[in-house]
Structures are given as structure tokens and as C-alpha cells.
Amino acid sequence: MITTPKPLTFKQFLDFAEGNELNEYELVAGRLVLMPEPSELHEEILEFLSFMFELAYRKRKLKYSVRKRNALQISDTQSRRPDITIIQRPQFYPDD
């Protein structure tokens, strides 16, 4: 008899990711998927875009922040790690 493993939840995914900082994973349909190592060019583009977004927000005094490769919950069994995420800072966030 073949048993199908139970899909991981987002919370289980976060618990797993905490002890595995050397590799980055996404949660796809309850399964861990190892993300490929980005190329040097990819990383340079990511840094440039992050810098430009931050510069624009600070210049216009907007309450946004740039996050890189944070796990975003899509559903209970789905999570993605986009290269860049733009988030609105909470009201209580200190001014820069």
C-alpha cells in the first residue's frame, strides 16, 4: 500500500524554513520546492531595483518598504518567495 504524504501547511513550512537558512524553498501544493540559485546578473538586477525603489520612496516620503525573498502566504498550502515585495509600512513605523 502506498501512502501519500499529508501536504504541509504554511506554518509547518515556516517552521521548516527556520532551520534551513542555507537553501530557499517555496511551498507548492503542500510540497517543498527548492528554489534554484540565482545568477550573478539576477542578483545585480535585484539590488539595483531594490535601491531604486527605496530611493523613490524616501524622496517622496512614502510609507513603503522593499523586502527581498520573504515568504508570502498564498493559501494554507501555498507560499511564494518573490524576488522583491513592496509593502506598506504600518502607521506606527518610525520615520527615517
Structural write-up:
With 96 residues, the protein is of the alpha+beta class. It has one domain. The chain is 31% helix and 26% strand. The chain contains 2 helices and 6 strands. The strands form 3 sheets. The protein has a two-stranded antiparallel ribbon. The chain is elongated. The N and C termini lie far apart (60 Å). The model has no long low-confidence stretch (mean pLDDT 87).
Features:
alpha+beta, 96 residues, two-stranded antiparallel sheet, elongated, 26% strand
Blueprint of the fold:
Blueprint: H1 10-18, E1 25-28, E2 31-34, H2 40-60, E3 64-68, E4 72-75, E5 78-80, E6 84-88
Antiparallel strand pairs: 1-2, 3-6, 4-5
Tally of contiguous helical segments: 2
Helix content: 25-40%
Radius of gyration: 17 Å
Order of secondary-structure elements: HEEHEEEE
Number of domains: 1
Quick description:
By secondary structure, the chain is of the alpha+beta class. The protein has helices at residues 10-18, 40-60, and strands at 25-28, 31-34, 64-68, 72-75, 78-80, 84-88.
